[in-house]
Amino acid sequence: MTESAHTIADIERDTGLSKDTLRVWERRYGFPLPLRDAQGERRYDDDQLLRLRHIRRLLDAGHRPGQVVPLPLAQLLTLDTPARPQRMQGQGKKSATAPAPGDAVGPDLSHWMDLLRAQRSQPLYQALQQWLLVHGLGALVREVIAPMNRRVGQAWLDGELAVFEEHLYTELVQRLLRTGLSQVVLASALRPPRVLLTTVPGEAHTLGLLMAECMLVLEGCETVSLGAQTPLRDIAEAARAREADVVALGFSSALRPRDARTALEQLHPQLPPSVLLWTGGQCPGLQKGPRGAARLAGHTHMDELDQIAPAVARWRAERTTTAT
User: Fold this and answer.
1) CA–CA dist 133, 130 (Å, integer)
2) Half-sphere exposure of 255 (CA within 13 A, CB side)
3) Exposed end of the chain (fewer CB within 10 Å): N or C?
4) What is the DSSP letter of 271?
5) Per residue in 175-188, pLDDT tens?
6) Distance (Å, rounded) from C-alpha 134 to C-alpha 157?
7) Contact assessment for residue 227 and residue 213, using Cβ atoms and an 8 Å cutoff
8) Distance CA 294, CA 274 (A)
9) pTM exceeds cut of 0.85
10) Cα-based torsion angle of the residue sequence 251, 310, 62, 208 in order, rounded to the nearest 10 degrees
11) pLDDT, tens digit, for every residue of 118-156?
């Protein structure tokens, strides 16, 4: 990237930090310190973008702006280390391709990351497609896509991947998962629970939701996907019209915890009483069990894909007990 190439709109899209917030921090904390172009518009260099990415992660983890915004990058990295368990201590920027705890031993994740960095999307797609054919959809999601997502996210955070490269990866994986999903649907007899999947307004990330749908279908569930950013009233209307048993919502770390909690609190009373609300993803506010979300009857948050199968089994056991 070119030094000082980022506009304030670029920074807002990349980090999720609003323009107003950036301006307030500039006045209050002396950071960020953008240069000005010939038209007087703010321009931010790569170092400031990287620092702002870590600041955003720390804010999501519960730190206050006054505690982290004035800190240099080295101290931000120290604070951010506990929130990044897959990054090994003492490693440099190449750590995004080194083996990480929880990663599968079999898949050649390092090679596939190199293909992504080289923008060799076709060889990468073919390698992932071959893994799908040999090992099946469940293994692809758990052993390949989940750890690859962590590596891609870390590489982006460290400035090793451009935003467009992250988007390239996301589109490639979504295409592959939809192919695998269609094959499972054709080969399976689906049964309840019927799960309606979507994201709330402001949450544009759908890869995690698609991964969850794959796991649900592998459990024999009937799924209905509405895509991203469905208005809350429409989610509730669709749940009634499609006679959904569960509404499943995906939340990424890009969505502010407060916005996630507010969406759940507003959606919950609009749903039929019999409909359960399942959420998943890496939104820190939901992982910590926020005040509002924790009190919602019928709401379950799942941090890991492996929690889906037990949740489905519980639903079926409870409905069987109720029916008898």
Assistant:
1) 5
2) 29
3) C
4) S
5) 999 999 888 876 66
6) 32
7) no
8) 18
9) no
10) -30
11) 989 999 999 999 999 888 999 999 999 999 998 998 888
Q: Are strands 42-43 and 35-36 parallel, antiparallel or unpaired?
A: antiparallel
Count of all residues that appear for the chain in the document: 324
* Strand intervals (E) in the chain: 35-36, 42-43, 191-198, 221-225, 246-251, 276-281, 299-302
The two tokens of residue 241 are: 């019209």
Phi, psi of 203 (to 5 degrees): -110, 100
Joined tokens for residue 152: 């891609």
d(C-alpha 13, C-alpha 244), whole Å: 34
Q: What gap in Å lies between CA 27 and CA 40, rounded to an integer? A: 17
Which tokens belong to 238?
A: 């669709």
CA atoms within 13 A on the CB side of 232: 15
Whether cis (ω within 30° of 0) applies to the bond prior to 273 is no
SS3 310: helix
Question: Which tokens hold the place of 160?
Answer: 């090793």
